[in-house]
Amino acid sequence: MRLRRHMRMPVFNRDEGTERPSGRRRDEADASKLGLCGLRNIGNTCFMNSVIQCLSHTQELTRFLRSHHGSRSSSTKDQQILHEFAKLIQEMWTSNVHTVTPMELKRAFSTKHRMYSDYNQQDAQEFLRFFLDSLHSALNSGVKGETLNIDDNLSDNKKADLTWEWYTRHENSLVRDLFVGQLKSTLKCTTCGNTSVTFDPFWDLSVPLPSSSRCKLEACLDLFIREEVLDGDEMPTCAKCKTRRKCTKSFTIQRFPKYLVIHLKRFSETRWSKLSNIVEFPTMDRELNMGSYGANSNSNVHYSLYAISNHMGSTAGGHYVALCKHPVSRKWHEFNDNIVSDALSENFLVSSSAYILFYERA
To answer: Where along the chain is composition biased (Basic and acidic residues) (predicted)?
Structure first.
């Protein structure tokens, strides 16, 4: 279900006559228009269109896809998805192409993920996870079978490195290189004080929202890493006590990804309700510093925002759009299915509609 926008955005009028720049300036002007391509809605597919636009503005991924040439008769469903996505990106970044229909990509994706074969509205973050997993699987050259064995006496950082090396031997693709980071989970027994750590890959951070109607992104990240008490039915078995004990559990980020995806958990688990909090997130270059959330202190890890997937409306009916920063002009544009807005002010970026934030490491 699509909602009417109360605020009308200026859109490109490509028929207006303007004085043509020459030489290098003309090349730069042409490059600043590439990728400003809308995607037709083919039946409640705004969730897909929004995510595709955000991925299209992920520079290293698009650079790879624009030169990727696979076979239509690719052997796996994932490779067919990759093939159609690469074709779509190549068309979207072609001169004088203003609108594209992503029908073949949706058909290839629905062949593997049957829940997307109809034309019902879907969740953009769930789609993003499935979609990146398919791209990764299509490119994965990793070797399976090796068992992970780590000496418990090693330092945490050494354990993390060995776990990451093992993971990357199994899961080896450009998509993993770009989007995957590593979480450190610390479990501490409240009886004997024994501490155990585990390290797991993550493709995005799903952060809870505080109860206040307006907050900063840092408050959401603080909730994500906040120490949690595991008691009652949730009590784990302490390796030292050899019995179930009340424990505390906390997260920190051991390894930061090149592209950090932050999912604001606006929807309840049952999707019966949606939070409309305004989360104030950093929008300027290098403004987001994730260093304080790292497992190793005294580090500065700066990120720059480059894309947002917005959800407007409620659980009963809503609409997705994307806000993306062009890699050449450095201007923000709104991608509302087939309509691409003119340059946006950065004041337009923070709203109660922000759902998925895409950051690039500076």
So the answer is: 13-29
Q: Largest alpha-carbon pair distance within the chain?
A: 78
Mean pLDDT estimate for the chain = 91
Point out the catalytic residue in the list 46, 54, 189, 238. Answer: 46
Q: For 55-84, how does the pLDDT look when each residue is reduced to its tens digit (9 = 90+)?
A: 999 999 999 999 998 776 668 999 999 999
Q: What digits encode the pLDDT tens for the residues 77-91?
A: 999 999 999 999 999
Q: Can you give the pTM of this predicted structure? A: 0.90
Number of C-alpha atoms within 13 angstroms, CB side, residue 330?
Answer: 4
- Residue of 136, 263, 319, 326 with catalytic role: 319
Q: Is 238 a catalytic residue?
A: no
The crossing angle, in degrees rounded to 10, of helices 46-56 and 124-139 is 50
Digit-coded pLDDT (tens) for 102-152: 999 999 999 999 999 998 999 999 999 999 999 999 999 999 888 999 998
In DSSP terms, 199 is beta-bridged to 184
Measured CA to CA in angstroms, residue 236 lies from 131, 149, 195, 231, 232 at distances of: 33, 21, 12, 8, 9
User: Which residue segments constitute the domains of the chain, with CATH numbers given?
Assistant: 22-361 (3.90.70.10)
